[in-house]
TrEMBL record:
Enzymatic class: transferase
Pfam family, one: Cons_hypoth95
Organism expressing this protein natively: Urinicoccus massiliensis
GO molecular function terms attached to this record: 16S rRNA (guanine(966)-N(2))-methyltransferase activity; nucleic acid binding
Keywords: Methyltransferase, Transferase
Protein name per its UniProtKB record: Ribosomal RNA small subunit methyltransferase D
EC number(s) on file: 2.1.1.171
Length: 178
């Protein structure tokens, strides 16, 4: 696990200590970020942050801010260690569930990484609806959904691109107001 591009390119990240966390493989992450293009000055939500690899990659590539949310106590230590290792200051880390974090934030996001535990089949729709209900998405915001099963997108979200990597799918979704 490493930062692939940007100002922290090549920096190795700590792997998860818990088997509950499945970080995005480097080849998948590289392809995902190639699909996303320029991230300069974007505000990013890493909703189920795990090791923080996606949010930290976004910061390295020029994102202006990342909100990391993680509620797995076994994973939080690794997330904190990786954030300290990368040493980029434009972030907030929330230790708890994403819904509570979103209720507390004033940020509006341009990019969202959504990679919930695969057994939580309803998390995609619940998080997206929560973001909309709280008006936390900027117009044209993109959402990256990592999944291993079909998901139903709420109204107002359109899938722009979908790629399969082994048993995992990565969807790039765009928000257009309802």
């Amino acid at each position: 696990m490493r930062i692939i591009s940007g100002i922290k390119r090549g920096l190795k990240l700590n792997p998860p200590k818990s088997l509950d966390t499945r970080p995005t493989e480097d080849r998948v992450k590289e392809n995902m970020f190639n699909l996303l293009g320029n991230l300069r000055d974007l505000k990013v939500l890493d909703a189920f942050a795990g090791t923080g690899a996606l949010g930290l990659e976004a910061l390295s590539r020029g994102a202006s801010f990342v909100l990391f949310c993680e509620n797995n106590h076994k994973t939080l230590t690794t997330l904190k260690d990786n954030i300290e290792k990368v040493n980029l200051k434009s972030y907030t880390m929330y230790s708890g569930d994403v819904y509570t974090a979103l209720n507390k934030t004033k940020e509006k996001f341009d990019l969202v990484f959504l990679d919930p535990p695969y057994q939580d089949l309803e998390a995609y729709g619940k998080v997206l609806n929560h973001l909309v209900d709280l008006d936390l998405l900027n117009p044209g915001a993109r959402i990256v959904c990592e999944r291993n099963h079909e998901i139903n997108l709420p109204q107002g979200f359109d899938c722009l691109k979908s790629r399969k990597y082994g048993s995992k799918w990565v969807d790039i979704v765009k928000w257009s107001k309802r």
